[in-house]
Design brief:
Layout: E1 10-14, H1 20-27, E2 35-39, E3 60-66, H2 72-76, H3 78-94, E4 100-103, E5 107-110, E6 113-124, E7 130-138, H4 159-163, H5 169-190, H6 192-201, E8 209-213, E9 218-226, E10 232-236, E11 239-243, E12 247-249
Parallel strand pairs: 1-2
Antiparallel strand pairs: 2-3, 3-7, 4-5, 5-6, 6-7, 8-9, 8-12, 9-10, 10-11
């Protein structure tokens, strides 16, 4: 384990897994503390709402199993902590904060294209205990082609295609896990307020029109802010809308 990797977390690296989130769910009961699980190859990767996540070798796939005795609402705020940590890590490896932005609720954009996504799932353990799995995929080397992407979705890009920077998955995890540890400690110490402030400083399309697609309707409005619960706040012709979960289209 490198000197960069945070000492308060463990790390497990696997040559191949079906999905790091699925592997994390199977392993969680045997882990002693919060642990990063890195899969160098995934054969059945998943994104939000059960969508397939295309993940060629050389790209980054990892899941943090986080042990935290908190409410579901508080656990869900880890999507903002994780996206900020990804932002921080990508700035370290590229030296370019100007190209990066954050898309609500859980994507990271590079030069306007999607470079990373986050998937949060709760793991049920024995005796009513639970853990949170935070799955992260980053297009380090290659990006899926548009034929593999849902219509109107943000076009995918890779770190290498945009910046020419090459970084392997395990060194990237060391940077990322270190940045996550800093943001997590800040959250535990000071709550969501500083995380919210930092996230908004890097948010994509603040003040601009966006579409929030919910299961039974679409809402168009101006992206105003996120509230203290992480909900999206849209200004619409009918007034403000608070949205807890949706797919966002620009």
């Amino acid at each position: 384990m490198s000197d960069r990797f945070p000492h308060e977390y463990d790390k497990l690296v696997f040559t191949e897994v079906d999905s790091t989130n699925a592997h994390a769910a199977r392993m969680a009961k045997d882990l002693n503390r919060s642990t990063w699980i890195l899969g160098l190859k995934q054969t059945a990767a998943r994104g939000r709402r059960g969508r397939k996540w295309v993940n060629p070798e050389g790209n980054f796939s990892a899941t943090l199993v986080l042990f935290a005795n908190e409410s579901e609402q508080t656990l869900a705020l880890r999507s903002f902590i994780t996206s900020l940590a990804l932002f921080d890590a990508l700035v370290i490896v590229t030296g370019r904060s100007d190209l990066l932005s954050l898309k609500w609720p859980n994507d990271v954009l590079l030069n306007g294209g999607k470079i990373a996504g986050i998937l949060l799932e709760t793991i049920s353990l024995e005796a009513g205990r639970k853990a949170l799995s935070i799955g992260v995929g980053v297009n380090l080397i290659t990006a899926p082609n548009m034929a593999q992407i849902e219509g109107n979705a943000t076009p995918p890009v890779s770190l290498f295609s945009v910046t020419g920077v090459r970084v392997a998955p395990e060194p990237f995890l060391d940077y990322f896990a270190s940045c996550y540890a800093v943001r997590e400690a800040e959250f535990l110490r000071n709550g969501f307020l500083p995380i919210r402030k930092a996230w908004l400083e890097h948010a994509a399309r603040i003040g601009e029109g966006i579409i929030a697609r919910l299961p039974k309707r679409e809402i168009f409005g101006l992206f105003d802010t996120i509230d203290e619960k992480g909900h999206l706040v849209l200004k619409t012709q009918q007034g403000k809308e608070l949205i807890a979960s949706a797919d966002i289209f620009f």
